[in-house]
Design a protein that fits this description.
This protein is an alpha+beta fold. Helices cover about 65% and strands about 10% of the residues.
């Protein structure tokens, strides 16, 4: 262990150091609570995903500049009458009342009922029972104000008519998302705390031992929440989704590290009467592995700064800050609290000096350890083959790009969206804006040729001129696809059109530039950037964690097969998770964010258990053969790692209570991956590789060397 870390943990494990540590943490919590805002004040229901330099964002900026788009917030009112067609007169009176009662909040409302019949027809479904009304809210409204406004407008419609109103579009989705997460955050936190408490009591049958990790997690959560509030005040936009996942990470990591330290502390209490000396010795052996475990997670989160998409970049500062505080707590607050209670923390199973060393060890892990040590090649072959079979299903993963489809089916904005999809042309949900920018004004013939050429492109249903600017030098078209603008085949079609834009101009006889803006264009950029970010994040994280493992083990070979087992574990978890999600929950397509979310967490958290095992192996190898050291390492760490793995998996499974499919599937995949890693990778595959590949030393290895 490095000298500075030993100095810190040795000091914490003294009576004076323990009290000072607890006092400093309490002072920090109190000061931050008094002086810093909470992160909840700065949570956003959504963030800007695609960077400004992306093609679709550049195109949108040009559209806004040339055609002076307003800064309002679009909303779509979908009126539905179940029994008879909507009366235009009744609808007109209703729209006028809405406009009058909320004129301070509504920028613009299209009076569809009073439009000429030909113009109004496009806003009414064929059966006349569904009407769509485009509305623009004032751009100054906050999400909470929009939520209240939507509620008031729906109440007015319910009171004045027999129609149902569904508010969708950006304003409807943002408000519904805010309401969903406001309720879900409370459920998430209470479920996480309750589940960890119950599992700890069931596994260890000690009330105090169950409470100590939760007390630590609560104190760390208080510090992290206020520090993130300071970042929010400084301008950092933090999404609600990010905060939800961060809270799970925080409670899971704190519980894991608490169990690793507690397990070794219990061993040392059987050797030392003095509780201070027992903690000092425990931290000398576990301090560095626990710190390295936290470091791998921190490194994984910092790598997300290299991503282009806003979703991933938003994770980086939030999770990195949380892990930094957790790492500090793991070598200060956790040992201080365990030392404060001493042997009482383990009541009623209090460890005593000289107690039978075999007591408390799990027969299951003794059996596993003996088998793996005796038959390492058979173990590696069987477990390896099983993991390969599970991973073989991962190429069948299908992606869903329509975000609203991941929300609950009874969410009003989703219901309104699906009414639009059912009763109107699918492409009208989100038309694409095509902007031509040339050096000279277009003639009517050139305009017609360009319009005709765009209309010939794959899946295009209609192309309509939308306006001209800059003395005819700039022309805008509205391009509508035949299919849903968020489906993969529509995104593919627009991607091909963008790739052929020079050819389209040449065949139209024009010398200028084409720009494509809108939801589908943004999805084209988003998908391409996601492919890029996946390659960058996977590569950088793999290299960085390998370097961290090498720093710990001082062995290239050991570091290679450790990171290799984690990569295999991820692929297996992805394959098994996809198969089970389809079979159990009828989820056959997921957000394209799920694989990279799962990779980051499974690699970062999964390597924790390997570090604990290998660190214990290196410690035992000082005085035992390779087989003996592996067997002792598995026996000593098996119980605590399997307990920690079960709790960690259950904690991430709590995300399945969230109302967004992305979080549901992410939590499910990570839970499966952690269980695979806990029992198959860490318990069998990695120990088998160590026995198979490590050679006996003729000299006793120095501490920390491989």
């Amino acid at each position: 262990m490095s000298r500075w870390l030993r100095a810190v943990t040795d000091w914490v494990a003294t009576k004076k150091g323990m009290w000072w540590t607890l006092a400093l943490w309490l002072a920090a919590i109190g000061a931050l609570a008094a002086l810093a805002p909470n992160v909840k004040q700065y949570e956003a229901s959504s963030i800007e995903t695609v960077p400004k330099e992306a093609q679709s964002m550049v195109a949108q900026a040009k559209v806004d500049r040339y055609f002076q788009a307003d800064d309002g917030i679009p909303a779509i009112f979908v009126f539905r009458s179940e029994k008879e067609p909507v009366s235009k007169d009744a609808l007109q009176r209703l729209l006028m009342q809405i406009q009058q009662q909320h004129q301070e909040a509504i920028e613009k409302l299209v009076p569809v009922a009073s439009l000429p019949p030909q113009a109004a027809a496009s806003f009414f479904a064929k059966d006349g029972k569904t009407v769509v009304v485009p509305v623009t809210y004032k751009g100054s409204l906050e999400s909470k104000e929009i939520e209240t406004l939507n509620k008031d407008i729906r109440q007015l419609v319910n009171n004045k008519s027999a129609m149902k109103l569904y508010i969708t579009g950006p304003a409807g989705i943002a408000a519904d998302t805010l309401a969903l997460f406001s309720r879900a955050d409370v459920v998430l936190l209470l479920s996480t705390v309750g589940l960890i408490l119950v599992l700890l009591i069931v596994i260890y049958r000690s009330p105090l031992l169950a409470l100590i990790p939760l007390v630590v997690a609560g104190m760390v959560y208080g510090v992290v929440g206020q520090l993130l509030g300071l970042l929010g005040r400084g301008g950092l936009v933090i999404s609600k989704q990010t905060v939800s996942i961060m809270s799970i990470l925080l409670f899971a990591a704190v519980t894991d590290y608490s169990l690793f330290i507690f397990s070794r502390y219990r061993e040392e209490l059987k050797r030392h009467e003095d509780k201070w000396e027992a903690m000092r010795q425990a931290m000398r052996e576990t301090g560095l592995p626990v710190l390295f475990s936290g470091g791998t997670v921190l490194a994984a989160m910092l790598v997300l700064f290299f991503a282009k998409l806003g979703d991933y970049r938003n994770f980086a500062p939030t999770f990195a800050l949380a892990m930094a505080v957790i790492m500090i707590a793991s070598v200060t607050l956790i040992p201080a609290l365990f030392t404060l209670f001493g042997r009482k923390a383990f009541w009623p199973n209090i460890p005593r000096v000289g107690e039978n060393k075999a007591r408390g060890r799990r027969t299951f892990w003794e059996t596993v350890a003996r088998f793996v040590a005796a038959k390492p090649r058979l173990t590696v072959a069987v477990i390896g083959a099983l993991l390969v079979v599970l991973a073989s299903h991962s190429p069948f993963l299908r992606y869903e790009y329509d975000l609203i489809k991941s929300f609950p089916q009874d969410m009003p904005s989703r219901q309104g969206y699906e009414l639009l999809e059912k009763h109107f042309a699918k492409g009208e949900l989100a038309p694409t804006t095509v902007l031509y920018e040339g050096k000279e004004a277009l003639s009517p013939q050139q305009l017609a040729r360009l319009q005709d050429e765009l209309g010939k492109q794959p899946l295009v249903s209609e192309v309509r001129p939308a306006g001209t600017a800059d003395d005819g030098r700039v022309v805008s078209f509205t391009l509508t696809f035949r299919e849903n603008p968020y489906e993969a085949k529509t995104i593919d079609a627009l991607e091909r059109i963008i790739e052929r834009k020079e050819t389209i101009l040449n065949e139209s006889g024009l010398d200028g530039r084409l720009y494509f803006a809108g939801e589908t264009a943004a999805k084209v950029d988003e998908r391409a950037l996601n492919h890029r970010d996946t390659a960058v994040i996977v590569s950088l994280e793999t290299v960085l964690i390998f370097l961290l493992l090498f720093a710990l083990t001082k062995s290239v070979k050991r570091s290679l097969y450790m990171i290799g087992t984690i990569l295999v574990s991820f692929a297996s978890a992805l394959g098994l998770g996809i198969w089970l999600a389809d079979g159990l929950f009828d989820i056959n397509a997921v957000s394209d964010r799920v694989p990279i979310y799962a990779f980051v967490f499974l690699v970062a958290l999964g390597i924790d258990y390997n570090i604990i095992l290998v660190s214990r192996f290196q410690e035992e190898w000082r005085t035992h053969s390779v087989k003996g050291a592996v067997e002792r390492a598995v026996v000593h760490t098996g119980g605590v790692i399997s307990s920690a793995g079960l709790i960690l998996a259950a904690t991430f499974a709590v995300l399945m209570t969230q109302p967004v499919q992305l979080l549901f599937v992410f939590g499910f995949l990570v839970a499966i991956g952690i269980l695979l890693d806990t029992f198959l990778i860490r318990g069998m595959l990695l120990p088998g590789l160590i026995v198979w590949l490590e050679k006996e030393r003729t000299e006793r290895p120095l501490p920390g060397n491989g």
